[in-house]
Amino acid sequence: LQVAIPPNVELRLELNPEGQVMAVTLVHGESTAQLNVFAAPRSEGIWDEVRQEIADALNTGGGRATEETGTLGTELRAVVPNEVPGQGVVQAPARFVGVDGPRWFLRALLTGPAATDDGAARPLLEAVRGVVVVRGTDPMPAREPLVLTLPAEAQQAAQPPAEEPGAPRVALPERGPEITEVY
Fold first, then answer.
1. How many CB atoms lie within 10 A of CB 111?
2. Per-residue pLDDT tens digits for 57-95
3. Which of 25, 61, 110, 146 might form a disulfide with 12, Cβ 3.0–4.6 angstroms?
4. How far is Cα 64 from Cα 80, in angstroms, rounded to an integer?
5. Residue 115, CA distances (Å) to 14, 94, 108 in order
6. What is the distance between the alpha carbons of residues 16 and 157, in angstroms, rounded to a whole number?
7. Which residues on adjacent β-strands are paired with residue 91?
């Protein structure tokens, strides 16, 4: 994914247990948009089918979903049951947006105020509208998540700096004993 980050929007990466980037999350205030990209058939899109499956799963799993027309086409406005420690199951609003492309499918899940407020969603949806998917040529089954790669600059920034020969080694402090007070 090539994502142009609008002003005041933070980008976070979601990693799988193997350390591969599987999703990009855009954060604007208290709103988020999680972007996932999947392989899709060359000839047809899968958003209609995926949208129906999400709606069916929510409607039978204690949530609710309805289709609405949004700025990027048909989307799902949903209420999703979430387990919150100490509060039990809480119904949280969510908005699912899908974009079909040639051999790829982009899904955005908006949460927070962006799920219900078009004004709060605007910067995130603008970012979604500007996403470029570089699919590659490898054959993949439809609906298989595409593994995302960091640009070279970001990979270098994530690497610790190499030690210079003869540079003094500094011992990093270690955590000591911790005391927990219970009232």
1. 18
2. 999 989 999 999 999 999 999 999 888 888 888 899 999
3. 25
4. 7
5. 20, 5, 11
6. 20
7. 81
